[in-house]
Amino acid sequence: MRGLKAWATAGALILGLGASAAAAQGDADRGPVVVELFTSQGCSSCPPADALLAELAKREGVLALALHVDYWDYIGWKDSFGDPAHTRRQKAYASAGGRRSIYTPQMIVQGAQHVVGTQPQNVRDLITSHASDPALIALRVERTGGGELRISARVSDPSLNGAALVQVIRYEPSETVKITKGENAGRTMTYTNIVTNWSLLGEWDMKQPFNATAELKGARPAAIIVQRKGPGEILAARRLR
């Protein structure tokens, strides 16, 4: 595990703007458990966590996402998927949780708990725990024939309050990289569900139903996440392949 002192800023992250993906879905269940892996091609401790994420990505009840950070680029290898926005998101999680440092590989499960990404049993236990969380939001996601995404959400538990962020994520299912420098020099790595865009569709007060549309072009899969501000707990998620 590699660590880095955080100069984190609190608050919700609004990253880039993305578009693209597949299918149509809807309903009132909570959806898959979201697992975010903060990783780097330049981190020698990360390959086992990358392999674990690939395993988790095969599970229907899990939305596994790899967010490659950029803060290890200085040690000899620039991560081809590294994005400072991912580093900012990881710092925001640290700040929201009262932690003063960030590290790789780190997994955040359902926006609520963090765990070292090389502890598979702990990760699986958290996934199992969150899989039985009650459905609090009815989230419907539909892709139209014109490359448009329609999203609607309403609260199914009247006790739910506060503000939430409705976010659209685009990701690449798989990419293979030959690493020639740095701590993983000489290795050829295959990465899974690499986040390419994480954008804010809108902020929702969870008092009135939420309705919005977004462009969805291209072949990459997409996901919709409703998450408490902070960033905090993920309340609902849908995947569009």
UniProtKB/TrEMBL annotation:
| Database matches in InterPro entries | DUF1223, Thioredoxin-like_sf
Signal keyword on record: yes
Q: Which range is the signal sequence, renumbered to this chain?
A: 1-23
Asked if Signal is a keyword of the record, the answer is yes
Provide this UniProt record's keywords sorted from A to Z: Signal
Taken from the record, one Pfam family name reads DUF1223
Q: What is this protein called?
A: DUF1223 domain-containing protein
